[in-house]
Amino acid sequence: xxxxxxxxxxxxxxxxxxxxxxxxxxxxxxxxxxxxxxxxxxxxxxxxxxxxxxxxxxxxxxxxxxxxxxxxxxxxxxxxxxxxxxxxxxxxxxxxxxxxxxxxxxxxxxxxxxxxxxxxxxxxxxxxxxxxxxxxxxxxxxxxxxxxxxxxxxxxxxxxxxxxxxxxxxxxxxxxxxxxxxxxxxxxxxxxxxxxxxxxxxxxx
Length: 205
Description:
- There is one protein chain.
- The chain is an all-alpha fold.
């Protein structure tokens, strides 16, 4: 069930920004932005800053690989909103068939060995974290993943473990293809940080 407070509980500055977004995109505001802007100082701004660092900060992993990691986490957590959104964002960096084959986890995966091993680990982390063993981590390191790169990828998995559960909790539906493409272009251009009109003007807690 979609929470009505996420639709109607924003302050004036946020509602104005949403109105401008609807005018320019000719579509609705993405569900995740409605959630993140609701009492943004409590959750949305800190989480968006963390996501920006995990997804766009300096890393061993490319932007496309990190988006594929996020999509794999979303699919494992059965989050239709995040799976549709991040599949589209990954496809803004590499061909959509590359993304599809990478997530299929078969022998045809186009990912480099390090990313393939890391994706498998992250999906297991989302599916059964208590079942992970040191041997699972060793398998990733044997594929050529350094300790630093391992930590960078785990931060992606942890960040989207939180986000996918949040979006499932509020009942967010999957994005339609055109909505996903528009959102992907926005994220590719501007990243994950909270929009400045919110951080500078909104008084939301």
